[in-house]
Every structure is written in C-alpha cells, then in structure tokens.
Amino acid sequence: MRAAILAVGSELLGPERLDTNSLLLARQLESHGLTLCRKAVVGDEVEEIGPLLVELFATAELVLVTGGLGPTADDLTRQAAASALGRGLSERAEIVAEIEAKFASFGMRMPAVNRRQAEVIDDAVVLANHRGTAPGLRVDHERGTLFLFPGVPHELAAMVDSALVPWLESRGSRPLETRLFKVACLPESTAEETLAPAYAEFGAEAIALLASAGELRVRLTARGGAAGPGGLDRLERRVAELMGDAVFTRRSEETLEAVVGGLLGAAGRTVATAESCTGGLVAERLTRVAGSSAWFVGAVVTYADRLKVELLGVDERLLERHGAVSREVAEAMASGARRRLASDYGVAITGIAGPGGGSEEKPVGTVHVALAGPADGSPTHRRLRLPGDRERVRRLTGQWALDLLRRQLLDEVGDPPPA
Length: 419
Fold this sequence. Notes:
Shape: elongated
CATH superfamily of the largest domain: MoaB/Mog-like domain
Number of strands: 17
CATH class of the largest domain: Alpha Beta
Largest sheet: 6 strands, mixed
C-alpha cells in the first residue's frame, strides 16, 4: 500500500513551528511496511487543501491528514476534504453533547464555536479523541482511505494507537521486524564503506543509516536478501562482525552515557571529569543515568586557566609553553581530576568551541580530550578538529569523551551487561 501525509497549518509554513506530526506518522507507516510516497505541508485555505488531497489520491491509496480540525475560522480541513471527495458535511448532535460534557468536566461552558468540531463528512467513521475535543474521521471511498487527525501532537499520538494501527493490522499489515545498532563518533561515509560487504550480500534496501551529531543508527529490516527465513538474523550477525566495537548498544533508547555507566558499574570503577569548553556537559550527561552516584565521583569546570592550576594542579609552565588548548594540558587535567577527586578514571576536555577564539594554529573546533586511568602509563589522548557551530562542537566533544572512556572500559570488562 502506498501512503501520503498532509500536514495542515499556516504556522507550519513559517520558521517557528516544526512539523513533528509527519515524523510520527512516517515512523508508523514504515514500521508497518507501507511505502510513503509523498509528504506535504499546506496552509489553512480550502482552495489549497482540497486540490492537494485530490493530487495525493492520484498516487496513494492511503492519505493521512493532521491539523485543521479545531474550532476556529481557519480550521478548514473537514470542509476541504468533503469538497474534494464530493460529499456533504453535517453536525452530529451526539458529538456536540460529548464536547459539552468534556468542557463541563472542567467546570466550563462550551463556546459556541466548538460546534464546528462536531461536523462529520457523510459516511465517515468518527474516531474518538480522548485527549481533546476534536474527533478524527476516517473516510473510505473509491480512491482509497482518508484519515483526518487533529494537529495537537499528544492527541494525534493517542489516536494513531487507538485508530490507525488497528486499521492497518485489520488489513493484514504487521509491524516490520527490525534490528538496530547505535554507533558513536563514526562518520556516515566511513560506516558506508565498512558495511559494503553487507550491502553486496543482502541489498541496500535492508540497511539504513540515520546520522545525527556524533551518533549513527544502523537500522536493519527484513527486506532484500534479509527478507527470507533467518535472513534478518544473518544480516545482524554480519553487521555486528563488520562494525565491531564501534557499536555501543543495540537498544533503541539506551544512551552512550548509560552504556558507560553500566561498564563502570560492572568494573567497580569510578570516574571524575574536568571540563573547560564543554562547561560540565559530560558530567551532566553522566548524572542523567539513574544510579550514577555509585560510579560518578564529581566534576570540576575549570574555564579559567587559574583554576586549572589551583584546582587540578596543572603546571603553570605547561600553560605558558603549550597553551590551555593542548595535549599536555588536557593530560594534566585528566590526571589532576583523577588525583584530586580520588577516582579511578579522570576525563578531561579543553578546546575552542567558538565562534571566536580560534587562530591559524588552533582554529575553532580544535579540542583535546584526555583519559587518565588506573593502568600504568600516560593518559590516553585524542586531538579533534570538529565542524559546526558552538553547540555542535560541544555536543560532538561530549560524544568523543564518553566513547573514549567506553572503549577503555571495554578492554577491562568486555561487553556491557544486559539491560
């Protein structure tokens, strides 16, 4: 089945409102194996919505619409859909009563304009909205099926579960079996090259790469050469072999900091952080993890060079000779954090996040990350040259610091414990 999504709302055409509803619907369609052939955004105008619905039904059997079901004069989706389908629109007394009862439950009188939400397209199925006042509609017609959903995200999410998913399953659609690998600090192009043998064996349609700042999701689906019995298992084993320890988890909701916490707990080790350009970002992420008090000792944010000396014991001569943004200072900060805060590991970050402060020798995005641990020898060090604005540099730096610690812990304790 081919599907299309239409988001209605003039505010979605401006720079301040993101259309997250289409993302939610697209995920559901993909998970049920449907092909999404069109996504569109349109303003609150009948003469725009109606023709676009006709156009979408020329290429799709299922059209999902969000928005424009409210009580105000610019909520025109019902009228536009009725016109496009050549059907009438009439008020339902029982829906008016339901809306009145919802207002009464809050000790309020229903405004007269809310009667618009009780208008139903001829022969449509009314979809209950337990989180709001605007019911949805499902209309089956000769060109396919149309769903009208409210645009309020939490209302839409509930109605997708209560109305759309059961309808899809009633038509024989079942959630598509998938597997996931999450990878830190690996460029998408590098992952593409690494996975080339799997593409050749199972087909590109079975593997999707979804990149974000410092993190890559490798999603596998039972398509192509992985569609047959046991095919997805074979693909999963092949990808695991190719990606190796670049993978930090196979669980969708598990974060890099949670994995690091699990490894620290399994090893019986503790960690402290010393941060400059990230301003405590890594410490904040580590303490998001429930139970982090068992392995996170504390943090020092030494933005000023004076504090690097006073709090971490960094030798002033290192700062004078190499500058604050240097391997030598990063390593001294990591060792100082471990020593002063009495932890097994010390993670340190010093760099130039921008937008100013860079030089020809040390441009914006230059960052040094160091890790001091209980093993003998010098701290582990990474010099990074990171792209993007200030926030992106800080985010990427945090990923590199956590992944550096993760890899060190893997050498000590092996794979993380199961969730």
